[in-house]
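=== RUN LOG ===
request id: a7f3
mode: sequence -> structure
chains: 1
length: 920
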Amino acid sequence: MSIYNDYVQEVVERKGQGLHPKPIDGAELLSEVIAQIKDTNNEHREESLRLFIYNTLPGTTPAAAVKAQFLKEIILGQEVVAEITPTFAFELLSHMKGGPSIKVLLDIALGADEAVAKQAAEVLKTQVFLYDADTNRLKVAYETGNAIAKDILESYAKAEFFTKLPEVPEEIKVVTYIAAEGDISTDLLSPGNQAHSRSDRELHGKCMITPAAQEEIKALQALHPDASVMLIAEKGTMGVGSSRMSGVNNVALWTGKQASPYIPFVNIAPIVAGTNGISPIFLTTVDVTGGIGIDLQNWVKKTDENGNVVRDENGDVILEQAYSVATGTVLTINTKTKKLYNGDVELKDISKSFTPQKLEFIKAGGSYAIVFGKKIQTFAAQTLGIEAPQVFAPAKEITKEGVGLTAVEKIFNKNAVGVAPGKTLHAGSDVRVKVNIVGSQDTTGLMTAQELEAMAATVIAPSVDGAYQSGCHTASVWDKKAQANIPKLMKFMNEFGVITARDPKGEYHSMTDVIHKVLNDITVDEWAIIIGGDSHTRMSKGVAFGADSGTVALALATGEASMPIPESVKVTFKGQMKEHMDFRDVVHATQLQMLQQFDGENVFQGRIIEVHIGTLLADQAFTFTDWTAEMKAKASICISQDETLIQSLEIAKSRIQIMIDKGMDNKNQVLQGLIDKANKRIAEIRSGEKPALQPDANASYYAEVVVDLDIIDEPMIADPDVNNADVSKRYTHDVIRGLSYYGADKKVDLGFVGSCMVHKDDLKIVSQILKNVEAEKGYVSFNAPLVVAAPTYNIIDELKAEGDWEFLQKYSGFEFNDALPKTAARTEYENIMYLERPGCNLCMGNQEKAAKGDTVLATSTRLFQGRVVEDRDGKKGESLLASTPVVVLSAILGRIPTVEEYKSAVKGINLTKFAPIPTK
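=== RESULT ===
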C-alpha cells in the first residue's frame, strides 16, 4: 500500500471518532499528495489539493520543506496548478511561519526575476521568524547593492510587520462561562491521563473539562455569535498546577479564533478569568497565544460596620459578591479605558490585563512574534546604520534610589540583555534576560518540538549553558503510546542539541530520572536563570520558572526570556525544629503560618519566595522550593551559605560526571562545560572573589514571613478537604492540618513515597522505619499498598552501596525491571511494597493511578481532583500530602497514625533537619 492509502485508512478511523484528518507533517506523504495534484486525472486530486492547502503543518516540519519547494516551482512557472496561482502560492508561503518558506522567499526575492522578486519582498516584510542564516543572506545582498534587500531591511527597521497589523478592537464582547467553582487546575483543561494526545490538538481538545461543558460552550456561542466565551474560575484562581500549553490550546480551540485559515487546529486569543486572577505560569501561556487573562475580584472579604473582616464559625473569612459573572452574562471589555463593563455599569479596572506589552501580544497574535520582531528590527537598523524608530512600547524601567536589591533583582540585573551599562533595575521593570538552563519534559516535549518547528528553529541557541529532555513522565509504563511518541521526541531533541534521557541510538541506558532533580543538578551557578516545561521547575540554585512548552521552545531557540522582575516575599525562620519533626512538615507549616499572619491572603501568589534555608544542601532545600508551586508563587530562590553551596556544587559535579560516563554528553560537550562552570564557581566562592548570592540588607520586599519552628509540634498534612461545603475551598493546597486532627480514624487505602519532593534521605527513612518495625514485631506487614519510586537512579545506586536498597528489596513484593518494563498501567494493588522505576509514577497521574475512590497519602505535590486518584460513585478520591515517615507508617497501619504512634516509629531515625541562621 502507498503511504497515502495508509493515511486514508487513518482518516476513516478518525472520522469514526468524530475527528478530521490528522495534519500532515511528513515529507513522504506530502510528496505523494503533490504527485496526485500534478496528475489531473487522479481520483484523489481534489482531496489532495485540500490537504496540501489546508492540512499541512508549517515551520520546519519535513512536510513544510516539501510544500515550500512546490510553491516555489509554481511561482517560477516550473509547475502549473490551476487552483494555485502564483499569487495564491505567495499567500500560502506567508502563512508558513519561517524555515523552508523563508528560504524560498529569499531565493525568489534575491533572484533575477524582478517581478516575482518584488512580490516575494512584500511577503517577507510580514515575516518575523528569521534566523542567522536568513538575516546573513539579507545583509550580504544589501552590502553588494541589492535594492530589494535594502527595501526589505528598511521595512524591518520600521517594524512594518507589526505596525501594519490591525489594531486591537476598542471593545471586546464576552459571554461568561463558569468552568468550575474554586481553583481550576490545568488538569481540568488538559488532563494528565490524556498527555499522550497533546500533540494531536483536535483529539486532545476533546478532553477539556467534560463533553457536557463543551456542548454548553457551543450553545453559548450559538446564542451570542458576536461574543467570545470567557472561561472563569469562580471564587478561585484560573490555571493552577502545571503550565500546560495544552490547557491554553484547548481553551483557544473551543473559545478562541483560528490563527490562520491554512493551519489546522491552531487557535489563538483565548479569554480566561478568575476571581483571584490567573496563575502566573498559566498567564504567561495565555500571552503566548495573544489571549487575555483577567483578575475579576468579583468576590471580596465581607467587613462589618467598623471595617473588620467578618468570619464564620470555623474562623474562615466570609466572602460577599461584588458583581455577578454567572454563566451566560454578557460583558464588555474596553481595551482603551481598560475596564470591564456590564452594559454601562463599570465593574472592574483591568489595567493589568492591558499593559502596553500585553496589548502588543494581542495585536501580534502572541508574544513570540514580538520577541522575534524586536530582534529583526534591531538587526535591520544596525545593518542599515540607522537608529531604530521607537515602535514597540519601551521597556518599563524602575530604579529606586537608596534601595538595595533582593536576590531575584540581582539575578535579573546580572542576566539582563539590552540594558544600559550601570543601570540598576528593581521589581516591576520589564527585562529581557539570558536563560542559562532549559528543561523539557516528555509529556509536553512533543508540543515543544512542534513549537520549535513552528518558529522555524533548527538548533539550540549557543548561549544556553545546558538543556535536558526528560523521560520521567512516561517512565512507569512503556506502553504503545509511549513507544510511539517518546523515541520520536528524543531523536528530535537530541538532534536539536539537547541532552536526552533516552538515547535515540540506543547506546546508553535510559535515564528516567525526575526532570526537576536533573535540572537541579545541572544548575551549577546560583546566579542562573532556568526555564523548564513544568510548574515544578523550582531549583534550589538560581531562580527557575516553570513554563509552557512554547516558552521552553523560545528559550531553546533564542537563549532568552522576557518578563517583569517579580516582587519578592522574604521567608526566614526562628526557633528550633523538634526532634521528631521532618523538614517536609516545616514546608507545610510555612504555608499555614503565612496564611495566618496575613489574614488568609496568600502573599506568595505571583511573587518570588526568597527563602533563607542556607544550611540545607540543594537536594534537601529543593523540598521547599519545589512546594512553592503549590504556594502559587511565581518562583523561589534559596539563599545558601558558602560552604553549603560548595558541597551542593560538588554533588552536582559528581552526578553530571555520571551522565558523562554513561555516554550522555554530545558533540558540543555540554555536560563537561557544566562541570567546568561548577569548578569556576567553586573557586570564586573559596577565594572570596564572589561569595554565595545574598540579598542586600536594605532590599525592599512585598512582605516578610517569619516561620516559628517552635510551634511545629506534630506532622503537618495538606488536605484536599474534599467534603467542604464550600466547593471553592476544596483541592486548594491551603488546608494544612496537624496529625492529631485525624485521631486514629482516617483510613488510608494506598501510600506513595516518590516524586520530585523526595531525596535520598527519604528513601533511607523508608528503610529505617521498616527496620524499626521489624525490630519491634519481628516482621513487617502492610495494611495498605506502599508504592515507592526513587526520583533518580543515582539514589538507588547510593542506597545499594549503603545497604538500604537490600532491605527495601527484602520487604518488597514488586521490583521494577528495566529489561522488562511494564507495558500496561497497574489498576489493582495488593497490600505490599512496590519498588517502582525512577520517575514521576503516581504523582503525574498520566499512567499509574490509585483505584478510584481511594484515600491516598503521598509525599508528592498534587492533590487536585482526579490527578492521583479519581472519584467513584458514592466516594470521592482524595490525595493527602505528608512527610515520608507519616506515609510509610500509614501504609503499615492502613490508617493515619496518632502522634504517639508516629513519635514511637521515628525514634532514632535521621529525619531531614534544618537549623535557621541569623539573617541580615
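=== NOTES ===
The radius of gyration is 28 Å.
DSSP finds 31 helices and 33 strands in the chain.
=== END ===
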